[in-house]
Amino acid sequence: MLKKISNIGDCGIACDFGDEISKDTNKEVIKFFSFVQDSTKAKKIKGILNCTPSYNKLIINFDLEKIKSSELIQFIQKSDYSKITLPEKNKLIEIPICYDEEFALDIKTLEQKTKLNFKEIIKEHLKTDFFVYMIGFVPGHPFMGDLNKELYLKRLETPRVRVPKGSVGIVEKFCNIYTFDSPGGWNIIGKTPLELFNINKNNPSILSPGDSVQFKSITKKELLSFKNE
User: Where do the Carboxyltransferase domain residues begin and end (predicted)?
Assistant: First the structure.
């Protein structure tokens, strides 16, 4: 349920759905995101430039020459997005992952802090049905949950300057995949050869908020020979 609307500078508003980070809250964000998109396509509202869903908020950027903040807020407050329905079954994407020690950069930390051996850690990770909460940080980069509490870990005390593209990381109940070489402080558990973002495709990002993800273990040999379509 929409709790609060706040201005972000002159050309943006934040639609806040509360402090809780959960699937139910995120699904409300996604429903509202769909409503704003549909309203824009149907020309019920003008001037919307971009919508960015997060765990529990939707950021809307708009063209100040076409619509005022007060007009957009009034439109939202008078609207009923509850009639928007989401698919009963989310899109399920299987993502290959190699847990070889060469790619599991934080294997020792994982074992020490979880008190599990790496085979047990892999088993817990593979049995998790992940929910994509949002895409952000860099293009195509997914933030997914929810991990078993046995695998909850804090961020690294000293973030890495460079995390290799394809690295799969975990922090607390979340899992992410680095779609580009970039800095990062997540605990790296493995690597996927699957290219999650390709600017040359009509839909550059394979994953979207609300999707489901299941990891599939592959060998180092399979990773090195993997070909993206």
Answer: 3-207
Q: What residue numbers bound the domain in which 59 lies?
A: 4-83
Residues in the chain: 229
Q: What is the CATH number of the domain that holds 118?
A: 2.40.100.10
Instruction: Tell me, yes or no, whether 64 and 154 share the same domain.
Output: no
DSSP 8-state class, residue 193: -
Residue-wise pLDDT tens digits, 38-95: 999 999 999 999 999 999 999 999 999 999 999 999 999 998 887 777 766 678 999 9
Which of 32, 52, 83 finishes a domain? 83
Does the pTM exceed 0.85?
Answer: yes
What does the longest C-alpha to C-alpha distance in the chain come to? 59
- Sheet with strand 48-53: strands edge to edge: 4-7, 12-16, 57-62, 48-53
Span between the terminal Cα atoms of the chain, in Å = 39
